[in-house]
Amino acid sequence: MNFLSLFVLIPLLMMLGLWLSRDMKQIRTVAVIGSTLQLVLAFVTLFLFMKERAVNDAPMLFTKSVMWYEPLNIHYAVGVDGISVAMLLLSAIIVFAGVFASWKINPLPKEFFLWLILLSIGVFGFFISIDLFTMFMFYEIALIPMYLLIGVWGSGNKNYSAMKLTLMLMGGSALLLLSILAIYYNSSADGNYTMNLLEIARNHAIPLAQQYWIFPLAFVGFGVLGAMFPFHTWSPDGHASAPTAVSMLHAGVLMKLGGYGCFRVAIFLMPEAANELAWIFLILTGISVVYGAFSACVQTDLKYINAYSSVSHCGLVLFAILMLNSTAMTGAVMQMLSHGLMTALFFALIGMIYGRTHTRDIREMGGLMKIMPFLSVCYVIAGLASLGLPGLSGFVAEMTIFVGSFQHADLFHRVFTIVACTSIVITAVYILRVVGKLLFGPVQNEHHRELTDATWWERFSAITLVVCVAAIGCFPNWISNLIRESLTSIIERL
């Protein structure tokens, strides 16, 4: 068995352990041990990858393929490159932090963790797959639990949010399925069709006329999950109603499946169409970046503010991918990592604050810096990362994106790059507004003075994410090199 399959096997064993658990202590023990093993495995994979990459320049390392369904030549095929390894590490960190953020989940803790772990199986499986159908299957496994996790354990208008999210993402899945079948039936000139990404790329058999309609299907299909305008409306409602750990995993990892899929499928397999049609999607993603930031400025609910911020930041990921050069694409992956960590931190802190104040309305809160200083300081750090302060992850990611975007000398790309740059200023507006009102304004509710600061498990969850955000900001070089080397095979085809 290939060791990459452990990313799927460990969560399956966790689900078995959770099913056998009888009380809250056993549930927590299984969740902590399982998520810790996943985190260790992610770091081991990183170490082994960097060691192997020094002597092996193959596009994917640690590849393994087992026939699954012969009539359609579907394989359980796995392999990783630098981008996959970075995404696996991100997912493992957020699942680990999410377990501690859900320490007191109620009701039905066993069922909650079962569905959460099933969601993580889909995420991990998606990032290790190099077979189109296997990718799609894991993609669906990641989406299905969202309905129940929001509908049962969510808050507010949760049934509407869960239904809206599910229907829109299933609509994106339908487009993806069409594009996968179209790629499959154009994957080879001699009729020996395949679902393997590397083989399809090597054959380079998809006619340009077919690429013109398959590329938009694939890009929009993944773009729906990446909250691309105008298909973003599910995201704010879904985030607002989801429980804390689900919001963390949803914004931190699940939305990255969209950007990763655009990389791995749309751009990699159909480079000619990408070059021809990129300008259409550049307009849409440019709108996403600015629209998301402006929308965040007028919200009063903490989760909605962060949800619209996610629309803006994920729009920036797709925007950078469409620049089709090495620097911007490196920035796109770094932005995935940065946004994943800081958004997970945001949602974790919002959940902790809501658990104490029982409100997410910034108009009803104030002076929290004196009442709960630990949570407040962590919120400030997350806010500073979001607006791109040097020394934190947001700066290196956004700077790399904008430097790469400015490499295009034509007026169209320059104008849209400048438009995207304005989002930094708008982000600063809503972040500083919230920090000023929430943490440093006058206390709005006298009962809030009696509230307690973070517990040990909340501190552990928050510190894990803060350290990661600061580590990327202070030591970005190794991640940048890891990503850039893996982009070579994609850039060569453009």
Concise summary:
The protein is mostly helical.
Q: What does this protein look like?
A:
- The chain is globular.
- It is 74% helix and 3% strand.
- With 494 residues, it is mainly α.
- The chain is built from 20 helices and 2 strands.
- Helix 3 packs parallel to helix 14 and helix 12 runs antiparallel to helix 13.
- The protein has one domain.
- A two-stranded antiparallel ribbon has the order 1-2.
- 55% of the residues are buried.
Strand order of the largest sheet: 1-2
Secondary structure class reads: mainly alpha
Number of domains: 1
Please bin the fraction of helical residues: over 70%
From the N-terminal CA to the C-terminal CA, the straight-line distance is 35 Å
Indicate the proportion of strand residues: under 5%
Q: H/E series, N to C?
A: HHEEHHHHHHHHHHHHHHHHHH
Indicate the mean pLDDT.
86
Characteristic terms for this protein:
74% helix, two-stranded antiparallel sheet, globular, 494 residues, mainly alpha
Q: Secondary structure elements and their pairing?
A:
Layout: H1 6-20, H2 24-53, E1 61-69, E2 74-80, H3 82-101, H4 109-128, H5 132-153, H6 158-184, H7 197-203, H8 208-225, H9 234-241, H10 244-254, H11 256-269, H12 271-297, H13 302-321, H14 326-357, H15 368-371, H16 373-386, H17 393-405, H18 411-440, H19 456-474, H20 477-491
Helix pairs in contact: 1-2, 1-4, 2-3, 3-4, 3-10, 3-14, 3-19, 4-5, 5-6, 6-8, 6-9, 8-11, 8-12, 9-13, 10-14, 11-13, 12-13, 12-18, 13-14, 13-18, 14-16, 14-17, 14-19, 14-20, 16-18, 16-19, 17-19
